Amino acid sequence: MSFLTSDRSVLSRRGLIGAAGAGIAALPLQALAQAPAPQGGQGAGPGGAEITVDQARTAPIPIAIPSFGPGIGEQMTQVISNDLAGCGLFRPLSVAASAGGGGVPDFDSYKAMGAQAIAQGTTSGSGGSVRVEFRLWNALTGQQLQGTAYTTSGGNWRRIAHIIADVIYERMLGDKGYFDTRIAFVSLNGPRSHAITRLAIMDQDGANTRMLTSGQWLVKTPRFHPTRDEIAFMSYAENRPRVYLFDLGSGRQEVLGEFAGISFAPRFSPDGSSVVMSATRGGGSDIYVVDLGSRATRRLTSSGAIDTSPCYSPDGSQIVFNSDRGGSPQLYIMGANGGDARRISYGSGQYGSPVWSPRGDLIAFTRIGSGGFSIGVMAPDGTGERILTKGFTVESPTFCPNGRVLAYCRQTAAGAGGAGFSSSLAQIDIAGFNERVIATPGGAQAPAWSPLKG
Amino acid sequence: MKFKILGALALVAAVAACSDDKSANTGTASGLGATSAPTGAAVPGSEADLVANVGDRVYFALAQNTLSPEAQATLDRQAAWLARYPQVTVQIAGNCDDRGTDEYNIALGNRRANAARDYLVAKGVAADRITTISYGKDRPTATGDDEQAWAQNRNAITSVR
């Protein structure tokens, strides 16, 4: 009877998560017998609360997350709570430790504390095999919105917690979550005049940081493949600055494309079949696309000026890029096969590092004026520019997979001898609120938000 | 990485200038060595000789790659020096201040290195004796953030390979 249709989408996306060796199985839980009968269409629409992201921005959803149990269970509770509070759209409520466990919640007591939703979980087993049963309830109606059992090895508890936070986000807000994601970045240490840079990767909440390169060579601008466990980045290996592909599974690196000059600024096409990048030619820089199958290279621009920082629209039909063909660095859009480009940035100062939202409706950018740097968004036709944040240096915006949040790099000015310089990662909601630091060990720059794992 | 061996001492100097991915930004912060008296320590035709007696770098105005008369004078001396030591090959590294974006500055640094290279080639230096690279804003000579530091960091630095 009560296999919730909503579980299907969760299953199709992550039911047999195994590509990354995670080995997580997710199966729908039967609704508890005492619960009100689920309504037929509940898998299609937003969560039972029917709250929009805009509403949640002004009034974060009060959610009770009683402890999932001792040990791993309690740690999972913390991760879920941090994810939900961190996005600014939820307000986890303080719940007595005794409130945990399975069974139909005491809705009256949760209503009394102001909860709109209850995230309930239990954990059993340990080490080799852990089972996590998760249910999401509408506290006001008593309706079960979701019921899923996850079976995995104990080492995956943190990932299960992020997946559960994503389910809560999706069921309550009708929009996919982005907590089961990673951020690649460039770790930055040592003197500023000769910084040691390493390609690095971490969970989006700052956990599980892993260095991917040794620091021998200057590395820059990691970018995730849309589906494969692969990163494109720039390395100065052997003093030849070029674009490389990095296979996260094997650690294997390979040069991408054959260019006489410097190749840089790579981004994958939305279908993952090619990489658009720029390469220097004489004093200028042109935009090229390299097919990942045939490795055929095609030049898309030849203005003689600097054309760089290309980024596809999510449908792959257009490319936004940075060019100083008009005299100063500005943003332009052209078709995916090159040809005529139209300028879209017209504010004072310089523009750079454009990145197209996965939703398609916005382009984020860095703007540089006499007062410093800022990060903003505009519509693809150049209208509606909004500045989200400012600083001495704020640059390299990258969208989370649902397009609701930008991560970026923030740097402070250096005094004599480089004192006072810092480089860190931060994030901000595209509405311009909930700006916060993403903790990293040491300095960090050039963030790239991964797609949802899956 | 290739070295033209000028003699044992010159080789030592060249190795010192090229180890690992160390950028070419190893000269003095002022880059005004050309105005100093020749030093007896610098081996003729070496990196140290270039820095001390010729001038290893030229500077650019904000967001520009135009060679000033002063920059042209430095490059004229570099061209004459390279004519005197035909075995020497050089790398020109273009650099930027940190008032541009990461990626744009790679291209701008390349444009500066290329401007210096083109000037040397026009003055008769064989193109195959010069390689170029850009470090964008990642290898600042001056590590502060004020007009003076930024002016020092907008440069093209020639180094012996």
UniProtKB/TrEMBL annotation, chain A:
TolB N-terminal domain boundaries: 50-145
A Pfam family recorded for this sequence: TolB_N
Segment forming the signal sequence: 1-33
UniProt KW keywords: Cell cycle, Cell division, Periplasm, Signal
InterPro entries: 6-blade_b-propeller_TolB-like, TAT_signal, Tol-Pal_TolB, TolB_N, WD40
Cellular localization per UniProt: Periplasm
PROSITE patterns: TAT (PS51318)
Domain of life: Bacteria
Assembly and binders: The Tol-Pal system is composed of five core proteins: the inner membrane proteins TolA, TolQ and TolR, the periplasmic protein TolB and the outer membrane protein Pal. They form a network linking the inner and outer membranes and the peptidoglycan layer.
Biological function: Part of the Tol-Pal system, which plays a role in outer membrane invagination during cell division and is important for maintaining outer membrane integrity.
Family assignment from sequence similarity: Belongs to the TolB family.
The protein, known as: Tol-Pal system protein TolB
TrEMBL record, chain B:
Record's keyword annotation contains Membrane: yes
Subunit structure: The Tol-Pal system is composed of five core proteins: the inner membrane proteins TolA, TolQ and TolR, the periplasmic protein TolB and the outer membrane protein Pal. They form a network linking the inner and outer membranes and the peptidoglycan layer.
Entry protein name: Peptidoglycan-associated lipoprotein
Keyword annotations of the record: Cell cycle, Cell division, Cell outer membrane, Lipoprotein, Membrane, Palmitate, Signal
Predominant localisation class: membrane
Pfam families referenced in this protein's UniProt entry, alphabetically: OmpA (PF00691)
Domain OmpA-like: 47-161
Record's subcellular location: Cell outer membrane
Gene label: pal
NCBIfam families associated with the record: Pal_lipo (TIGR02802)
Organism for this UniProt entry: Endosaccharibacter trunci
Family: Belongs to the Pal lipoprotein family.
Tree of life domain: Bacteria
Signal peptide: 1-19
Annotated membrane topology: Lipid-anchor
Membrane among keywords: yes
Known role: Part of the Tol-Pal system, which plays a role in outer membrane invagination during cell division and is important for maintaining outer membrane integrity.
